[in-house]
Specification:
This protein is mostly beta strands. The chain has one helix and five strands. The chain has a five-stranded antiparallel beta sheet, covered by helices on one side.
Length: 122
């Protein structure tokens, strides 16, 4: 259980490196990779879930501390279900594209808070 909690925590952790200010006409390149898995056992059955997500982002600062850009992402998962009678294996693949608009607020030297709105299509 503790292992799953740490994997979930890592999947939500995002690290951002930036200069003192996001200057107009500068480019943002980023992404996210996450992995997770779990196993559940009850009454003679077992369910195993595994999944991963990869996202790439590219944006351009239209004004100081304002970035507009796009995302590409892939997500895949596998679910294995076992019991005394049957064994079922399911695989899912999800592809998507999206746009985002991000606003940065400087909280201190090289430390930023940002809000982001986005629209995605899967």
């Amino acid at each position: 259980m503790k292992k799953n909690f740490y994997l979930l925590l890592l999947s939500f952790l995002r690290i951002s490196f930036a200069q003192a200010q996001i200057k107009k006409d500068s480019w943002l390149l980023g992404g996210q990779i996450s992995f997770g898995g779990s196993t559940t056992e009850s009454a003679g059955s077992e369910v195993k879930n595994n999944g991963q997500t990869i996202q790439l982002s590219l944006g351009k600062a239209l004004r100081d501390n304002r970035v507009f850009g796009g995302n590409l992402f892939y997500s895949g998962s596998r679910q294995d279900y076992f019991n005394v009678i049957e064994q079922v294996k399911l695989t899912y693949h999800d592809y998507g594209i999206g746009v985002f608009y991000r606003m940065y607020k400087t909280l201190g030297k090289d430390f930023f808070f940002f809000g982001q709105g986005n629209a995605d299509f899967n």
